[in-house]
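FW: tagging you since you asked about this chain on Friday. Here's the raw sequence from the shared folder, copied in full. Didn't touch anything.
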Amino acid sequence: MRIFLTGATGFVGSRITPELLAAGHEVVGLTRSESGRHQLEAAGARPHFGTIEDLESLMGGAAQAEAVIHTAFDHDFANYAANCEKDRRVITALGGVLQGSDRPLIVTSATVLGDSGDGEPALEAVFNEGAPIPRVATEQAARAVLSSGVDVRIVRLPQVHDPVRQGLITFYIDHARASGFVGYVGTGDDRWAAAHVGDVAQMFAATLERGSRGETYHAVGERGVPFRQIAGAVAADLDLPLVSLSPEEAEAHFGWLALFIGRNGAASNEWTKARLGWEPRGPGLIADLQAMDYGPVAPAT
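HL: got it, structure written out here
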């Protein structure tokens, strides 16, 4: 099968490519640069030049494909709402190309959108349109495209990690360096779901091969790591003090990160594992944080 993969040179996409190639698929990867072209060709994929801002380039890639996996996202969280609206436009454009066919479109979302607000882990069967994050736009677009007859499948991601990157926690580490201390909210009992990037890549392949139209899957390895434990690991490795903040202090201190820190981020994976026959086996989040090379601590500002 020929697969058009957006985000093909990114953290998750670059791990999906070898999974697909090993399964006998052909991968056409979106790239905006010559370095990306070399990376894709070295991996055995074919480059397709374009950007997520250039909808025509995306539609051209999708038109040649038998399936589309969309992992690209602009992670400038200072402009999070605008970037989520950009994602809505991308999904709508890709869906328009695939409409009237049986070619699947796999869309990437976030596990927090399965949180019903009852304090329990987020569920695959739940879509909370009232969730306080702009990423709601992604799943609204996916469901609109689904209703138009496209084979849409949604993969929700938690904190995806290895010893180099850890999702939002990467930004949290940079913020702690700049602040001179590692903060958490209250007792730090809020929990964050996590998954190793290798397990996530395998789940995208499983979603392509064994997933079904209209289903949502959670690429979750650990259902909920206590944030106090995450903060403690970061503080130990940065050799910085660990500080509990009130919700009001946290809002002022963390900026856009306050959208996530102190809130329930746990997510279930039981239905996904049973449905896809997928079993995460990679290292846990704390193990990867402890294995990370943190480098020098930036001076406090």
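FW: The longest strand covers residues 104-110.
HL: agreed, and The chain has eleven helices and twelve strands.
FW: great, closing this out.
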